Amino acid sequence: IVSSGAEGSGNGGNIVITADNSLAISGQNPYFYSGLFANTNAAGQSGNVTISTGQLSISENGAIEAGNIAGTGNGGDISINADNMTLSSQGFISTASADKGKAGNIKIDGSKISLFDEASISSSSSGTGDAGTISINALDQLFLEDSKITTEANFADGGNIFVKINNTLRMVDSDITATVGGGLGNGGNISIDPVFVILDNSLVIANAYQGNGGNIHIVADYFFSDTNSIVNASSQLGVDGTINIETPNIDLNSSFAFLPEYNKIPVLKSDQCQFRTNETASSLIKSGRGGLVPSLFVPLSTPITGLEGY
Question: Which ranges of the chain have pLDDT less than 50?
Fold first, then answer.
């Protein structure tokens, strides 16, 4: 553990790590997670966590966390700059607030960002303070499989989620959500801006309870979503949010060509060898091999060269 805390009215210190090559955080025992922690238990504000590295790996319940655990102070921010970042096996990055203070923001900049196997990036509020904002900027891709990027508030406003990717956002069995579980808080807004969006059994949701649902804005050159995926911005008792998906109107069905129906199956099933020899038995002998010709100077043969029947 590397930790910084605030137990009174003073603010907690910051955690700053610079690793030119890589930083790996992994492991859990019955008492604690491995990780970086900047928390406050009182009126003081917790410190910030700042990481700059070539490759960041968080796995096996490893954690980066900044939060307000029990006091009125605001939670700290988490800022990460990594060329490649991988979260797996329930590894997580989180900011949180359990009281009046606001949860901190999370900002991640990188090239390739991947989340696997119940990994998560989250900002939550279980008190009256608002959840923080999550901002992700990827030069190449953001890939989620069985993982979550989420902001959540029980009573206050949900945090916003901004995702900017130069290439592809792909989600498999995963969620991007900005929700409010109860109270008058409004759902957070979600903004997604890549070239490709691929949703496979995944959710993009900005819901609220009594407050207004958040707004969802997706800008993509190509948007692919299967029937099991859901994009929703609603409120159980308040006003539903808006969903705006800006993408070219590509009708893939119009480009499909239907193959002709072959009903003369007996022609294909007939035994030509038996017909030619007038015998009750036939055989097929394979001689030679298919594939590319062995030399540029050898002429191409027909597909049935090397097959003789009798």
Answer: 253-255, 267-268, 304-310
Instruction: Write out pLDDT tens, residues 38-56.
Output: 988 878 888 999 999 999 9
Q: Count Cα neighbours of 153 within 13 Å in the Cβ-side half-sphere.
A: 36
**Per-residue pLDDT tens for 74-119?**
889 999 999 999 999 999 999 998 878 889 999 999 999 999 999 9
Residue 78 inside a domain? The answer is yes
Specify the amino acid at residue 258.
F
The answer to whether position 305 is within a domain reads: no
Q: Is residue 239 part of a domain?
A: yes
Give the total number of structural domains in the chain: 1
Whether 98 maps to a domain, the answer reads: yes
Alpha-carbon Rg for the chain in angstroms: 29
Distance of CA 69 to the CA centre of its chain: 27
Range of the domain at 29: 2-253
Helices (H), the chain: 265-269, 272-277
